[in-house]
Specification:
Blueprint (H helix, E strand, L loop, with lengths): L2 H4 L17 H9 L4 H9 L2 H15 L15 H24 L13 H7 L7 H14 L2 H12 L7 E2 L15 E5 L4 E5 L7 E2 L10 E10 L2 E11 L12 E5 L12 E5 L2 E4 L9 E2 L5 E2 L9 H31 L18 H36 L6 H29 L11 H10 L7 H20 L24 H28 L4 H7 L1 H26 L6 H21 L1 H7 L4 H18 L3 H7 L4 H4 L10 H10 L10 H12 L3
Parallel strand pairs: 1-5, 2-5
Antiparallel strand pairs: 2-3, 3-9, 4-8, 5-6, 7-8, 10-11
Helix pairs in contact: 3-4, 3-20, 7-8, 7-9, 9-10, 9-11, 9-20, 10-11, 10-16, 10-17, 10-19, 11-12, 11-13, 11-16, 13-14, 13-16, 14-15, 14-16, 14-17, 14-18, 16-17, 17-18, 17-19
Bound molecules: Palmitoyl-CoA and flavin-adenine dinucleotide.
Cofactor: FAD
InterPro entries: ACOX_C_alpha1 (IPR055060), Acyl-CoA_ox_N (IPR029320), Acyl-CoA_Oxase/DH_mid-dom_sf (IPR046373), Acyl-CoA_oxidase (IPR012258), Acyl-CoA_oxidase_C (IPR002655), AcylCo_DH-like_C (IPR036250), AcylCoA_DH/ox_N_sf (IPR037069), AcylCoA_DH/oxidase_NM_dom_sf (IPR009100)
Pathway: Lipid metabolism; peroxisomal fatty acid beta-oxidation
């Protein structure tokens, strides 16, 4: 990626990247590994066949020079980032068709978006992402069979390109407060879309700026003079031939952001724009030709696409984290700094225990998130199949666990990536480390698709209900079964099982404490809403504890029951990572363990010792573990994290890509600096 332009330009030829030359420290690390890295890669891929498919797919896309950047996006203007992103996104679509026609192993473009491959090709975002991640899923999830038949094929073939326009300048979280209106006129059998205020301008949708010609627009439905709340409508934004905005449509880009600068996020407003009646998505609620409103079985079904994306985000976070931790671990094996023992040679920075502590818990986190994401994906599929058959019973449970997993996975991953960046010292701050861009992409996920605090409060709401049920002796759903009031908690025993059990006790204790705070609030004369707000810091904390209990439980269960096929050597390392994840979080939550699990000071010391022991045990396998993620250099996209470890050569190479280095004297010298240097004050 950094090779083609730069090799000509490095000041000294002997400092150029040499193909095939591998840093000796990395070579030594690879020899130390105690397990078969390929076995782990196969496990991660879900079997040898899937592994081969992935390799083939990566080869097909990543060996194509059209899809690789000659100039890194961070050196481009915002406009060029978009131009470049769009060109590649469109080319990718053609290439995908070609692959499918040749019997390739990929069904749709969406598979290219999440995870590693997408972020390698479109490093700073994809202007077509929302089309695949939200526009098409909304058509599929909210359209009648007739609407699906008409729209979905057009959309898959990119004959229409859409986005999901929900958030407005004034409201993102509180979607019941959206102001865009869709008013039905039975005479013309049309809805009229209108933006009555500045705060009703749609703001944020990906691809909306200059890319999409259609959108699913979420608007307040008015019919027969009555408002029925928010509903989704398919609205044409641009002419299919000229791409000019349709009459009454005001549309544009919202401008540069912390990251995701190629995603073409936009704004949108309507001046009484008409659409035919059959462009309201009517799988759930309907408006009949005479304007009669027919209610949905549940108004929360309108929120289905958000649920879908929350579910896939958890998996996406694991992929981003695998990339960041690969960069930081490889760099930490190559980088030498300071003297551990005076006079002795400088150690690899990964030999410092503090460095191991910065990195290894996050290798473990990749697995913790992956296992939870897999479980959540399976649950999502089960529940949506049931909903299609008219059974909505498990929807609240899915909503509750998806909300907290979305929040915890995005927050943890953002912290982890920032820690990886810090662990690389100054070089981690370079754009060419790819850690800043990765952080920019990931931190956005704490806000989009439901701001994290708000998501945790949704889970807390479900936990309060579950607690009340538990107190009444009613049956509880599986993810909150631990709140059962008759459940006997096992006493502390200095084992990983005890930690997982401990997290459940903590969550149960915090949930009970919240219920008490709410009750006291109401008894003191507060309204239930005021009492909720007063307890909300505690409620967020309880939801996070619940999620941690879920993640650790899942992780341990996978290690105990989901790895029987693996070799003993690999199982041992997987168990170490699971233990590390649990101990790491137990030590971060020492106060909670002391408060809720009856542990003593010496138990904390034992945990500390065990954490140190695990870090040292994992140390020889650290490079092997990140190698097993099997991320190609094009995916890593980092001067610090390439497989060969030619870190300094790549840093110099990438510096030479800067246009500032194109000439020995930059133009700005004549324009301003020379006068300053010669001025007499
Ligand atoms: C394979 C591809 C790879 C892709 C790779 C990854 C992606 C990579 C690219 C991404 C690119 C960026 C994409 C960003 C795209 C946006 O960001 S799109 C916009 C997303 N917007 C949001 O998420 C808005 C967040 N806000 C909300 O969801 C809702 O307003 C809130 C916060 C849930 C509150 O809703 P509300 O209607 O006011 O509900 P509330 O009164 O609080 O609760 C009412 C009841 O409904 C329930 N409820 C609420 N929501 C739901 C729900 N969804 N389901 C069921 N029940 C629900 C509540 O639990 C509550 O139940 P009860 O306690 O009464 O029984
Ligand atoms: C990169 C990116 C891409 C996006 N893409 C899209 C898209 O394609 N389509 C689309 O429709 N939208 C999109 N969004 C918008 C996104 O969904 C919203 O930004 C998000 O839902 C949060 O809403 P908000 O910005 O209004 O924040 P706010 O709700 O105003 O949040 C601000 C603060 O208020 C707090 N807060 C709000 N409500 C409560 C509450 N009830 N209790 C306690 N605290 C509260 C929050 O915790 C937060 O701290 C995108 C956003 C980003 C950043």
């Amino acid at each position: 990626m950094f090779g083609r332009l730069a090799a000509k330009q490095v000041p000294n030829k002997e400092y150029a990247v040499v193909p095939g030359k591998v840093n000796p420290d990395l070579q030594r690390e690879r020899k130390k590994c105690t397990f078969d890295t390929l076995e782990l890669t196969h496990f991660l891929d879900g079997g040898v066949e899937k592994y081969k498919d992935r390799k083939e797919r990566e080869n097909f896309f990543l060996s194509d020079p059209e899809l690789m950047d000659d100039v890194p996006p961070e050196l481009m203007s915002h406009e060029d980032q978009y131009r470049n992103g769009l060109k590649k996104a469109c080319y990718l679509f053609k290439k995908l068709k070609e692959l499918r026609e040749n019997g390739g192993t990929i069904d749709n473009y969406r598979q290219l978006l999440g995870g590693s491959l997408g972020s390698a090709i479109l490093k700073d975002g994809n202007p077509l992402a929302l089309h695949y991640v939200m526009f098409i899923p909304t058509l599929m999830g909210q359209g009648t069979p007739d609407q699906c038949a008409y729209w979905i094929e057009k959309a898959w073939d990119c004959r229409v390109i859409g986005t999901y326009a929900q958030t407005e300048l004034g409201h993102g979280t509180f979607i019941r407060g959206l102001e865009t209106t869709a008013t039905y006129n039975p005479k013309t059998q049309q809805f009229f879309l209108n933006s009555p205020t500045l705060t009703s301008y749609k703001w944020w949708p990906g691809g909306l700026g200059q890319t999409a010609n259609y959108a699913v627009v979420v608007a307040q439905l008015y019919t027969k003079g009555e408002c029925h709340g928010i509903h989704p409508f398919i609205v044409q934004l641009r002419d299919e031939k000229t791409h000019r905005p349709m009459p009454g449509v005001i549309v544009g880009e919202i401008g540069p952001k912390l990251g995701m600068n190629a995603t073409n996020n936009g704004f949108l407003a309507f001046k009484q724009v008409p659409i035919p009646r059959n462009q309201m998505l009517m799988k759930n609620a309907q408006v009949l030709p005479d304007g009669t409103y027919v209610k949905s079985p549940s108004n929360k079904l309108t929120y289905g696409t958000m649920m879908f994306v929350r579910v896939v985000i958890v998996q996406d976070m694991a992929s981003y984290l695998a990339k960041a931790v690969t960069i930081a671990v490889r760099y930490s094996a190559v980088r030498r700094q300071s003297e551990m023992v005076p006079g002795q040679s400088e150690p690899q920075i990964m030999d410092y225990l503090t460095q191991m502590y910065k990195l290894f818990p996050y290798i473990a986190t990749v697995y913790a998130l992956k296992f939870s994401a897999q479980w959540l994906w399976n649950m999502y599929n089960d529940v949506t199949a049931k909903i299609d058959a008219g059974d909505l019973e498990l929807l609240p449970e899915l909503h509750s666990i998806a909300c907290c997993l979305k929040a915890v996975s995005t927050a943890d991953t953002a912290t982890a990536i920032e820690t990886c960046r810090l662990s690389c010292g100054g070089h981690g701050y370079m754009a060419c480390s790819n850690l800043p861009t990765t952080y920019g992409n990931v931190t956005a996920a704490s806000t989009y698709e439901g701001e994290n605090t708000v998501m945790l409060l949704q889970t807390a709401r479900a936990l309060m209900k579950a607690y009340a049920k538990a107190q009444a002796g009613e049956q509880l759903s599986p993810t909150v079964e631990y709140l059962n009031r008759n459940r006997k908690f096992r006493p502390w025993s200095n084992t990983v099982d005890s930690i997982v059990e401990g997290f459940k006790q903590i969550a149960a204790g915090k949930v009970a404490a919240c219920a008490l705070s709410l009750q006291r609030g109401v008894e003191s004369g507060l309204s239930s809403e005021e009492a909720w707000n007063r307890a909300s810091v505690q409620l967020v904390d309880a939801a996070e504890a619940h999620c941690r209990a879920f993640i650790t439980d899942r992780h341990l269960d996978m290690v105990r029951n989901g790895m029987n096929e693996l070799s003993p050597a690999l199982r041992e390392v997987m168990a170490q990572l699971c233990d590390l994840y649990c101990v790491f979080w137990a030590l971060k939550r020492t106060g909670d363990f002391l408060q809720f699990c009856g542990i003593r000071g010496e138990d904390v010391q034992n945990l500390q010792d065990y954490q140190n022991e695990l870090l040292v045990q994992i140390r020889p396998n650290a490079v092997g573990l990140v190698d097993s993620f099997d991320l190609r250099d094009e995916i890593i996209g980092s001067a610090l994290g390439s497989y060969d470890g030619q870190v300094y050569e790549r840093l110099l190479q990438s510096a030479m890509l800067s246009p500032l280095n194109a000439k020995p004297v930059h133009d700005s010298y004549g324009a301003s600096l020379s006068a300053l240097l010669r001025a007499k004050y």
